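User: Second chain of the day. Same drill as before.
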Amino acid sequence: MSTFTYNIPTNDKKGSHYDVLGHLMPARIFVFVVVDEPGKDGFLVRRVYSSIEDPYLIQLNLTPIGNLREVYPEEYGLWSRGGPESKVSVAEHVLEFEKITSYASTSGTYPDGTLRMNGKTVYVDIAKAKRSGAKLVTTQEIVRAIDEYKMSLNSKGRREAERIKQKVTNIDKEILIQPRPRVPPSGVFSQTGLKASLGIVKYARVVQVIGIGFTAYDLGVASDQSFKIKSVRPIEKEVARQIAGWGGAVAGAKRGLPPALWWVSKRAQVQSLRV
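Assistant: Same format as last time:
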């Protein structure tokens, strides 16, 4: 580093003092972006009641909080009406023999969903649903469940089951979600919320930012060593040392710490060696 001289006025008055601030240590700030992109595995489309006053919703006789969950899953998360402990089968849910089940019906036809259902449209992030522990039942699995179940029905019941199966396959593209116990609000989007979230990712590519400051002196020394021995090892070790204290923050912000730190380390090397 260069020699630094600071000139200040002095006097002989007892008790007087003068605070001297040292020059600022130059530093580089590396900003690393951790992107949790919504919809990277796609979205499922669910039609929900538009109001807690809807007569069909009232007929279900749910609790007040149950009504709010039905109408505002983007605020309360996606819950099933019966909870994970419900024993109602896939076929009984789809054939509507029971309405209080552990499943929530969605459509795989994005972005419109099934046109047979009215109400407000919300979108469920498939990746976030799975990360929350939710189980998905595909259209093909639903069809197999109906085929097995209808064997126990009379002729009229089998015809009705076949009719519903055709709608599930050709119109609804139905996929069931079994929350455990819910898909969090961060995984459920209203139409407006989804547009805003996709806009953030599209234009800024930022959901969460982690800023890490490295002193120029320490990195400069490590860079000189790297150039002298023609190896990135010195600077790699220095970067790893400096970000060690940030490991917990990075891990809490994004699961998969080793790959994230590896990327941070490599990025820092490139930036520093270019100076």
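The chain has two domains: 43-200, 207-273.

User: Great, on to the next one.
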